[in-house]
Design brief:
Blueprint (H helix, E strand, L loop, with lengths): L1 E6 L2 H8 L2 H9 L3 E6 L12 E3 L7 E3 L1 H12 L7 E11 L2 H7 L4 E5 L8 H7 L2 E4 L9 H12 L32 E2 L2 E2 L2 H4 L3 H19 L1 H4 L6 H19 L1
Parallel strand pairs: 1-2, 1-6, 5-6, 5-7
Antiparallel strand pairs: 3-4, 8-9
Helix pairs in contact: 1-6, 3-5, 4-6, 8-10
The structure holds 6-chloroguanine (6GU).
The site of 6-chloroguanine (6GU) has 12 residues, from β5.
Length: 250
Amino acid sequence: MNFHVLTLFPEMIENGMNTSITGRAIAKGLLTLETVNIRDFAFNKHQKVDDYTYGGGAGMLMQAEPVYLAYESVAAHTQGKPRVVYLTPQGEIFNQSMAREMAQEKDLVFLCGHYEGIDERVLEEIVTDYVSIGDYVLTGGELPAMVMMDSISRMVPGVLNNEESGETESFAGNLLEYPQYSRPEEWHGKKVPEVLMSGHHANIDKWRREQSIIRTAQRRPDLLKKADLSNKEWNFVRQLKKQWKEEETK
Ligand code: 6GU
């Protein structure tokens, strides 16, 4: 996977991505990271990249030309026209299936905006995907780009080792991960659930699946609706909800 990031703050991207698991994957050559400073394509005396908006109103806008030239400097060495993700609160909200799908690309270009945004005309010409990371406002697209690259990276073969790996984690099948325990066997008077000490793998698997369902029903009922459960498990969910309702009215 080759990541290319068009940004006014390349050091922010470099510092984040060269750390921890993504940093290890870059060092191994499983990922490459190219940051392009949009300011390097502002061919005016003060390397200015922003200007006032036509029609008036608040704030400055990133101008089309430096963004376009930065994009072209990347597209000149990719195979065909690359996918270009513009990070914006106006985009589709990022999720695990988008991460899985984007991990199939050879090249991904991320365009990070600042100020009040970017001139619409260059967006029309280069952007293929408008993506948001949630309904809150950030100061720029760098953190969202890093969020996306982090989750896409862990879908790239070899990036995670055996211990780290797994689609068996949160969101696999739209269920949250079950609770986990390590040593000691008792801490602050709390014991590790008996079944986990039993060595009975079928029972452990059954307990974990149940816990995943309970946890998803409690914390993310919106996710549970999309989960693929057996008829028996859906009945279990109904039982749980009935039980919780009864406890409420006690
Ligand atoms: Cl992708 N960009 C900005 N600036 N703010 C956001 C966002 C993106 N997603 C949520 N808030």
